[in-house]
Amino acid sequence: MKTVKDLRLGMGDVQILPGSRHRPPMKKPMWIIVLVLFVCVFLVCAYIYPPKSSSACYIFSSGNCRSITDWLPPVPAREYTDEEIASRAVIRDILKTPVVLSKNPKIAFMFLSPGSLPFERLWDKFFQGHEGKFSVYVHASKTKPIHVSRYFVNRDIRSAQVVWGKISMVNAERRLLANALQDPDNQQFVLLSDSCVPLYTFDYIFDYLMYTNVSFVDCFTDPGPHGNGRYSKRMLPEIEMKNFRKGAQWFSMKRQHAVIVMADNLYYSKFKAYCQPGFEGKNCIADEHYLPTFFQIVDPGGIANWSTTHVDWSERKWHPKSYRVRDVSYELLKNITSIDVSVHVSSDEKRQVQSWPCLWNGIQKPCYLFARKFNPGTLSTLLQLFSNYSAP
């Protein structure tokens, strides 16, 4: 029998196994990190400086390649209502109808005024010697005008009350168009106010309007409270937020466009019902949104997106700057006629500036043919300056 001593000695003969080994920490795979960084830099460079080859277009998207969205299934188009289908069919056929050239084309000058026109004498001087090339229509909403020019006598149309900001303003515009369209020789239709004056000679304006390939309807996107902030979802489905536009009401449009405006009831009825001051707590001004939105939907490529009537909104008020006697000078008028870029500023806090050149048949030209808002007291000064400032 072994003693304790013998046991201890026996244990000394047993080989003691080493404990679990602690592996040294693994080295960081630096080559993987470098490879990932290289790929990221390559992808960024490829996006900024895209390859030109057609094979690379399957990987990278750029202005020279098809977008990835082009390879995806198309988004299903919204189903049009019966009213939209009927409206679009009529408008499409009108726009596709060949233009019938009149042997005696004329410009319809349509004046929207509360009463008498303070600048009739200036317009009389403008029209002299060009009989047969223009027509005059006056919509006086408050008082019967007293005319001092033979060109305005018996040119008043049946009128109705006009309230600023309400659909009655659009109604007056349509009423003027309806009367002017009765003359088949009227090929261009210009909406003017009682405070408007011409900036050029009749011949220059006649050629500018008669030989253009677009209508001059002001149209831009304003994401601010006085733009898209006026939109009502009740205009859906026919009028979507993405098509809601803003612009000055003063336009010059060709006959085809004047006809489709008169043919429209669908979009007009939406603005009549849901665009008015105070509706849903907003101040939607129908004459600032109806035509821009309408043309954005039915013929966006057919308008110039600016108005040929200059207005100074630099004072940032509800109404544009009014020119008084001390403001009117040769320099002022020449400065206006030198503007060849259309500028719009958003009504939100960002005050985003949108600008584009005024292109007439692809050629950059002065934007404005008319200007407002001139105080009646400036008539004498304008008459004295007209022959000088109106020369192109």
From TrEMBL:
Primary location recorded for the protein, binned into one broad class: membrane
Entry keywords, A to Z: Glycoprotein, Glycosyltransferase, Membrane, Transferase, Transmembrane, Transmembrane helix
Protein name: Glycosyl transferase
Residues that span the membrane, as ranges: 30-49
InterPro entries for the chain: BC10-like, Glyco_trans_14
Topology of this chain in the membrane: Single-pass type II membrane protein
Keyword field contains Coiled coil: no
GO cellular component, one term: membrane
Species this protein is from: Vigna unguiculata
GO-annotated molecular function: glycosyltransferase activity
PANTHER family linked: CORE-2/I-BRANCHING BETA-1,6-N-ACETYLGLUCOSAMINYLTRANSFERASE FAMILY PROTEIN-RELATED, OS06G0661900 PROTEIN
Compartment(s): Membrane
Keyword Membrane: yes
